[in-house]
Design brief:
Helices cover 46% and strands 20% of the residues. The chain has 7 helices and 10 strands. The strands form 3 sheets. A 5-stranded antiparallel beta sheet has the order 6-5-4-3-7. It has a 3-stranded antiparallel beta sheet with strand order 8-10-9, with helices on one face. The longest helix has 26 residues. The N and C termini lie far apart (105 Å).
Length: 269
């Protein structure tokens, strides 16, 4: 049994001691609230995601409030030795029982301090890909491209390889394009590059590229590479427009896009 004792017993606690304890607790709560507000006012993302600033604000609030409570208990003469000793033993047992939950909370703090993503970023964590909606102390919430809301335990996010698809501001796509044998390959490259530069959504830096990739049986393959916005919608929209633009440009310059041909020879006995 844990017994909380006062220095002179509860009956010996005077009125002014209770007043002083109440004031200490009130001042501690006020200081904790003010400190949290001062820290949070610098976080422009507080409505959408728990960032490093948000997590720091929570930790400071808890620490300052705990300090105020400690001072209040000392004023009324509460002996915290037995309480802290019992709390230490109970804390060890509780830590073993809640190991996974504690791991997620600690991971949430570390993710918040490292800040590898913010709300609106598209990430890949393990086998899950989606747009970050929120990071709290236990879960990272993402929305997958098909609209499913997924809660990822923070410990798993911290341990797994994490890819932030949007942090660099652009992504690269590529596709193969075939031209017939006998085509002026340098001309085909230049036509493809001009077509890519004219596509809405293709960025100038890094610049589009067109290279001869392969000599196939029925054609020469070019590999076209270009960069665009980082979101999945940009990938599909710009890639589609790029393919259409290159096909139209090749046709307007008389460059033949071949079909695969199979030659069958029949022999008579």
């Amino acid at each position: 049994m844990i017994v909380v004792t006062a220095a002179s017993g509860s009956a010996g606690i005077g009125f002014w001691q209770w007043v002083g304890a109440g004031l200490a607790l009130a001042v501690g709560a006020a200081l904790a609230t003010i400190a949290r507000w001062l820290i949070r006012r610098h976080d422009v993302r507080r409505a959408t995601v728990t960032s490093s600033v948000q997590i720091l604000a929570r930790l400071v609030f808890i620490i300052v409030l705990t300090a105020g409570l400690y001072v209040a208990l000392r004023i009324i003469g509460v002996d915290l030795g037995p309480v802290l000793g019992g709390a230490g033993i109970a804390g060890i047992a509780l830590a073993f029982a809640l190991k996974d939950i504690a791991e997620n909370y600690i991971s949430g703090i570390l993710l918040g301090l490292r800040n590898p993503f913010t709300a609106g970023h598209q990430i890949v964590s393990g086998s899950y890909e989606g747009t970050v909606e929120e990071l709290n102390l236990r879960y990272t919430t993402i929305r997958t491209p098909d609209g499913v809301r997924v809660l990822l335990p923070n410990a798993g996010v911290l341990k797994s390889p994490l890819t932030n698809l949007t942090v660099n501001g652009h992504r690269r796509s590529d596709f193969a394009f075939a031209v017939a044998y006998g085509t002026d390959l340098e001309q085909a490259r230049q036509v493809a590059l001009e077509a890519l530069r004219a596509v809405d959504g293709v960025v100038e830096d890094p610049a589009p590229e067109a290279w001869v990739e392969e000599l196939a049986a029925s054609w020469v393959a070019l590999r076209l590479r270009f960069s665009h916005g980082p979101r999945d919608a940009d990938v599909w929209r710009v890639r589609s427009a790029a393919i259409i633009g290159v096909v139209d440009a090749m046709g307007s310059h008389g460059i033949v896009v071949p079909f695969e041909r199979t030659v069958v020879e029949l022999e008579r006995d």
